[in-house]
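Anyone else keep sequences and C-alpha cells together like this?

Example one:
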Amino acid sequence: MIEPKEVTRDNCGNWTHPDLPVWGEGESGETINAWFAAQGMERKPIMLEGDLSADDYDKWAAKGDYDAEGWEPTKPDGEGWFILSIHDTDDGPVCWWARKVTT
C-alpha cells in the first residue's frame, strides 16, 4: 500500500511518488484504474489549466516553458488526500491526488 511521502519537486515542478509504477505513454486507463483498485485507493487528477484562474493561466502560458514550476495544486475536498505525482501530459501538467477508499 502506498503511503504519503514528502513531495520534493524538481526544477520543472514535477515529482512522482517512488512507489508508483512506471506506466508507459499510452498505457490504458483500465490498467491504471485496476492498479488503483487493487491498492484500495482512489485517484483524482487535477489539471493545471482547470486549477488556475484565467489570468494566472495566461501568465503561466506566456512563460512558454509549460512546466509545473510554481503551481500549487488544489487539494480535492474531503479527508486523506495526498499527492502521488505532478507530471506533464499531452494536455499540460497534472497532479494526481490519491487516498485510501473508505467503506
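And example two:
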Amino acid sequence: MNELLGNVFTALIIDQNDRYYFLQKNGVTFRLSKEEGEHQLGEAVEGFGYLNQKQEPVMTTVIPGSRVGHYAFGTVTGVRRDLGVFVDIGLEDKDIVVSLDDLSTMKELWPKKGDRLMVALRVDDKGRIWGELADEKHFKAMAHLGHSEMQNRNVSGTVYRLKMVGTYVLTDDLRIGFIHPEERFLEPRLGEQINGRVIGIRPDGVLNLSLKPRAHEAIDGDAGMILTFLERSAEGRIPFTDKSDPEEIKQAFGISKGQFKRAIGHLLKEKKIRQEDGYTILLKD
C-alpha cells in the first residue's frame, strides 16, 4: 500500500453506501466521499491516496499540490515541540507533519501558525506520511533572476532557509532574496512572511534585501518630515537651524519652533544631520 500513499493513481469503484464509494487498487480498499461528485459502480476514478487521522485509507479527487516528488506551499496549523509542525496541504481530515529532525535546533525559529512551508511528501516504512522541506536546488530552479530596475523596490516573500550567514527568502514574484544579519533587527522564522526592500542585486540575480526601514520611515512625525525636506533639497541642506526665526520655521514647515527644535535634536542624536553656518545639512550614510 505504501507506494500508493501520497501519490495520484486510478482505482476501480467496487461498492458504495450512503456516504462513500469504495475503490480498490492493488488489493487495498480506499473510500471516497460522495460529496466530491457522482460516480458509478465499475467506474475508474483518479485520485490522491492517504491515511486519515484514524489511519483509514482514503482517496480524494481534489489533488493537493504537495505529493511524493511534488512541492507546493502549505500553511502551518500547529506546533508540537516533541514532534514538529503540522501543515495543511488541502486534505479535509489530515494535516502533514514536518519532523523536528528537519527543523532548527533553535525552536524559537520554528514556524508558527499561519506561516508557510514548501513541502513534498515522503512515506516511511510504517505508512506514515511526512512533509519534506524543499531544498535550495528546488527554489533556484523555480526562481526568476533579479534585475537592476528592482533596486529600492518593496518586496514581500516567505523565508525558506536559515543559515549563519543570513536568511533566504522566496519573494511573491518568485525571486530569491538574501537578508544579511545586519539588515534585520531579529532573525525571521522559517516560513515567516516578511516585507522588505531591495538594497542590491547580486551578479547571480539574487536580491539583497533589508528588513530595516528607510531613514525617513524609521523616524516619525516632524523629524521624518524635515529629513524628507533634506533628502529632496538640491544640495542636501536647508537654510534653517534651531536658531532660526520662529515665524520663518512656521511658514516653511507648518510647525512651531519648539517642535522644530525637538525634531532637529532627534536627528542630531541619530547622527542624520549636522548644523553649520546657518544650515542644517544631511549626513550621508
